[in-house]
Amino acid sequence: MLHQKKDQVILIHYSCESFYDSEDGRTPRITSIACRNFGNGQTRSFSIHQVSELPKFAGKDAWDIYDDIEKELLDQFFDYVRAHVAHAFWVHWNMRDINYGFQAIEHRYEVLGGAPVEVPDEKKFDLARMFVARYGKRYAGHPRLESIMKINKITDKDFLSGKDEAYAFKDRKFLALHQSTLRKADVISSLLEAEIGGNLKTKAKWWDVHGGSVRFVWEKYIWTPAGQVVSALAIILALTEWFYPDAKHDFAAWVKGFVKTTD
DNA sequence: ATTGGTCACATGCAATAACC
DNA sequence: GGTTATTGCATGTGACCAAT
Is the CB of A205 under 7 A from strand B? Predict the structure, then answer.
């Protein structure tokens, strides 16, 4: 369904402060958000370093007025959401809870005094989960986004890992963060493109894809009355072979003798 | 073709406590 | 004092998850 209305599909990703070691329990600050139109590749992005260039913030240290800049960033973002919320489908990567996701952004906006526009849940698509559903959870190593990129030979230019992004925030490398976020939106787009085209490479085995599992095979084929009989016979055969290695030879000889006597 | 970190829980050993 | 019981700590095992 996503491929039918490509122009209405928006790939979204964002970067923020580390959500593990926040010193005062404050929710992590947002540093950049990228929204890419799946149809035409046009990407709207919102970032600290862009906003801080605006005339009203010029000449000040971004760190001192971070709240104001972040608020402006989110103002712009939610204007964008408001303009697209009626018709858009939002594809994202693991943006699913208050810790990291839409809810986290909304919450941050509220903290800064804004009134967020809510995206309805039924219009959100978590690509990471969709892949797990389709290919099983072993489709790629961890961290999954980086792993699936390698498997599909997608460039990692400007890509920062989650940890590195957290460090980049501390070092105030807002431009690098922004580049990384843009790259990730691009990567998610490529992955979705590959998935729709049917040429996404994963390390999933066929039984991962086709709904099988060891447990399933066990219950369906082995742990059934017929399966138990077969299993029992197999065990008897194996034991016979073990304790009586000449069984086959002797049995063949017996058959030969039997045929001879009936001649 | 794949790992690695974390958490909760269990297991086991040893030291101390409690009991006769 | 000798034996058992309970506690504590260390190590092991399995489940779960991978976003910044």
Answer: no
Other beta carbons within 10 Å of A23:
5
Is the CB of A153 less than 7 A from some atom of nucleic acid strand B? no
Predicted confidence (pLDDT) per residue in A18-36, tens digit: 776 655 667 788 899 999 9
Residues 114-153 of A with CB under 7 A from strand C: 128, 137, 142-146
A50 touches strand C (CB under 7 A): no
Are A98 and A57 within one domain?
yes
Whether nucleic acid strand C comes within 7 Å of the CB of A215, the answer is no
Quote the tokens at residue A74: 């989110």
Total domains in the fold of chain A: 2
Residues 6+ apart with CB under 8 A from A70: A29, A30, A48, A108, A112
Asked whether A3 and A86 are in contact (CB, 8 A), the reply is no
Which residues form the domain of A86? Answer: 2-208
Both structure tokens of A211: 């709904």
> DSSP readout, A34-68?
EEEETTT--EEEEEHHHHTTSGGGTTS-TTTTHHH
pLDDT of A82 reads: 93
Whether A203 sits with its Cβ under 7 A from any strand C atom: the answer reads: no
Position A3 confidence tier, pLDDT thresholds 50, 70, 90: low
Average pLDDT across chain A, whole number: 80
